[in-house]
Sequence to fold (264 residues):
Amino acid sequence: MNKKYALITGASSGIGEEIARNLASKGFNLVVTARRLERLNNLSKDICSQYDVDVRVISADLSEESAVNEIYEFCNKNGLHIDLIVNNAGYGIPTQFHETSMIEEEKFLRVLGTSVIGLTKAFIPEMIKNKSGKIMIISSVASFAPPSVIQSLYGPVKTFMNRFGDTLNALYKRDGISSTVVCPGYTVTEFHSASGVQEQMDKVPEFLKLNVKKVAEEAVQATLKGKTLCIPSKRYKVLVFLLKVIPWKVFQLIDITGGRYEKN
Ligand SMILES: NC(=O)c1ccc[n+]([C@@H]2O[C@H](COP(=O)([O-])OP(=O)(O)OC[C@H]3O[C@@H](n4cnc5c(N)ncnc54)[C@H](OP(=O)(O)O)[C@@H]3O)[C@@H](O)[C@H]2O)c1
Fold:
């Protein structure tokens, strides 16, 4: 059996789960991680019943400082060679900046930011040695959008991740490593209920809601081709283009989510 593995964070639901299923269908062995162990075990059983791949499960809370090391040691101890990292775990905080404690913000930044850097730092030396590796970072269209009234650090950390992906490409392309930043728009997953913003999601027009399987397929294809940026669907490619060329104030006037964006 092929000894190369894809490590997927946030594989217990949504985009991460669909990426896991998609990669397994293409023959990748998997290491899947998230906090909900039962979900991961069910996913593993389901994938193994359909495809001839090996799936390893490790439960970890990425808001804990020790999580990156636990995941790395698990792979190391079991001799699992990680050739593809999917940095996908994420959520949003539904309150305004001044209502959120620093501890909450630090945990948030660890899940969406520091752990991405930590996992990349842990696994990249072996990728450099093997002259082969792929790093997928699930960012968001929010990384290009105007500031939001709630989820104040969500857009900024996703923008940071876009720049981090660019940096990885600039530094390691010559070592056979590519980084792909995936920026989905509104995608139907558990994200909005888990993040306390389901009401805002319900106000989003249907044509702007993406199917999670299609997002996963575009994300995987772009990553395997070594593309630097992937914006799933034509609709959102156009929207991101407009966000880059039209002043934010114009978007703030036509706020489609009923007051999500700060008006200034
Ligand atoms: N849905 C959208 O509209 C949308 C749009 C753009 C970008 N994104 C991004 O896509 C990524 C995946 O989100 P999704 O839409 O698939 O949402 P989801 O269905 O809620 O999945 C989020 C995943 O992250 C994991 N996670 C959350 N907190 C964690 C923690 N502390 N430690 C470890 N794992 C944690 C969850 O697993 P456990 O709860 O089991 O730990 C779950 O597997 C996120 O980075 C999100 O920012 C989503």
Residues 4-253 form a domain with the Rossmann fold fold (CATH 3.40.50.720). The beta strands are 4-9, 29-34, 55-59, 81-87, 133-138, 177-182, 229-230. Residues 10-16, 34-36, 39, 61-63, 88-91, 111, 138, 140, 184, 186-187, 189-191, 194 surround NAP (CB under 6 Å). The CA atoms of residues 28 and 90 lie 23 Å apart.
